[in-house]
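Field reference: "sequence" (input) and "structure" (output). Example, J domain-containing protein:
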Amino acid sequence: MDDSNPDLPRFAAEYAEKEIDLFDLLGVDALASKKDIHRSWRKRTLNLHPDKAKANFDASKWELFERAREVLSDPNARAIYESSMKSKLLRKQERDAMDQERKKFADELEAAENAHRVKQQAQDQQDRETLQKERERLAEAQRMRDEERKRQAEAEQTMDDLAEAKRRIKERKEEKARKKQAKESMKASGQPKGPANGVVLVPGDYVVEIGTTTKQYWELVCDKLRAVQAVKNINQEDAGSDQSRKAELQVQELRRQIAEAETKYRQEVTAPRADESIHASINHQIDDFFVRIGFDPQTRIACDSFAASVSRGRECIPAQHQGYCSYTVFLSARHILQFRPVQFMLDMQVCREAREIYGALVPTTSYMGTVDAQELGGPTIREALHVYLQDVIPGISLEALRHMPYFSSKHRRNLIGDLADVFATGFHHGKLPRSAAKGGQIEFSRGIVGRSLAGRLSLLQALSGPESKYVEQVRQQAEVIESKMPWCFTHGDLVPANIMVNPDTGHLTGLIDWAEGEWLPLGTSLYGLEEVLGQVSSDGKTFEYYEDHLYLRARFWNRFTVLAASSPPVFQPRSFMEHVRTGRTLGILLWRGIAFDDGKIDRVVSEDRDELEIFKLRLFLGAPTPPDFNWRHRAWLSCIWLLRFVFHRPPSAKGKAVEAKVAKDNVTKVEIKYGGKSVDD
């Protein structure tokens, strides 16, 4: 018997309330000792035991005898039982002594008390069950979060393994190419004629230093070709072996010089430069940042001291490409530290939401504290800069990749496909405004832009050029935007400098700088797609689309339509693409129609002050919009959508959307018309 059973007092009170005579049940009197009670219980329950009764075993009766023994054997429970029974008997005697009217009143009062007690007991039981269910729900939610984290870790490890495997395959191919070139260089003499050339694509005007002289790469190649022809001429003329040997040595020397030039060029374009000019450029960027926000450049010393304290003595290196809104230093190969003024602070809730929705594409961010700053020509400002610790996103920015000589259409194709995954993931986590939300959906918190859409649309009415008709179209859809369109968690500054990519493949590795991230209408951030489809001209005054931008658009919309659809695209309502087009126009107007001016969003762009921005605004608004697919195209996409669910599960709730390989690489031959041209994707 468990004397510490906390339920025994409750059982004692319940039995007394139900007027169950436990002494009579066990066949003992009220003065029986604990030993007598146990002995009587053994006799009374001999035939009730499961081993004895077998098929006739009565569980409820057995439980009643067990409880009777436990209650009468426990001093506290027995005292409660006896006290309750005495009170019950006294009340019964008093009631019997009452006249008829008072007895009726007492019975009604007791019945009401009993009903209230039963109701309270039922409510307590319901509360206990509700609490238990909530505990189970929380445990299940924690289990699902743990499984999701484990799945993401496995996916990241798989991606790392895949990248490593690709790197090894690439090295083997290069080695095989070098061996093949060396083998082909073996001529009749059977001797190698120098290292392999042409493994690296070098610009013809690349300058090569040879001793005290310099030559351009194309001149070296011409010298080698002339030397090779000279060897052939000597062999045909049957000249002496010494002359032939000298000509072959000349060919080998030129091959060696070309190979060294190629190796040097590859190192220059793939490895970071650390010469004085780049250091000067970085320092200039950093000084400009502090002056731009009103601080003395000497504030950098305080920032570097803070970084040194965090890194515990390890060298902290300023990032080669500094952002407009922060000063960034590398603590290690895996972590960076960012110093931001108050006007460009990061919202930690925004960072958490972005990480939950887009997974490893968003760096983990931690708030580290503040740093005092020296005002330009003024006093020290307390806690002027806020410090954040972030994970390093692998790869380089798209802005940097564009200046690499090997940037090609292949890089753009891979990046466009990954961006379609990102937009589809954002759509799957979208939420409806409160007026259109169904029961049970959690209301989202609107950010700076989301709360001021009406005011910004009013400001945009000041645009007087051809873009004014687009402003009017969006204003007519204002009610639809505010109440019917889904809102998605959006990166507020989707430009090439904030898009991190793999320099070898162009695949997306992450999105950085979520300072302006917030919930916005579906399609608002599609202005960022236009930024990826071209780049600013060399004079910095215009923006030019790539030659393959029509194909890239078709690839994006095919993939996005398949990934975003919750049912086969052939059944998807046409209002979906209408909402996307409306959101796209709204985003272009907000981001390219209103001047930034260091955060002062109080005027529209003008031709005399914002030449590039006004050019982008008109170019993006006039670019091909998301298409209305015909029935044949929608049927093709529906086939791809179905194959996706045969080979892969839908996009994860916290990771990047994943499409079946068959839908990504093979089954994509459909036709889209953009600007009167047919584009096969």
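The CA atoms of residues 368 and 521 lie 32 Å apart.
The first strand starts at residue 207 and ends at 210.
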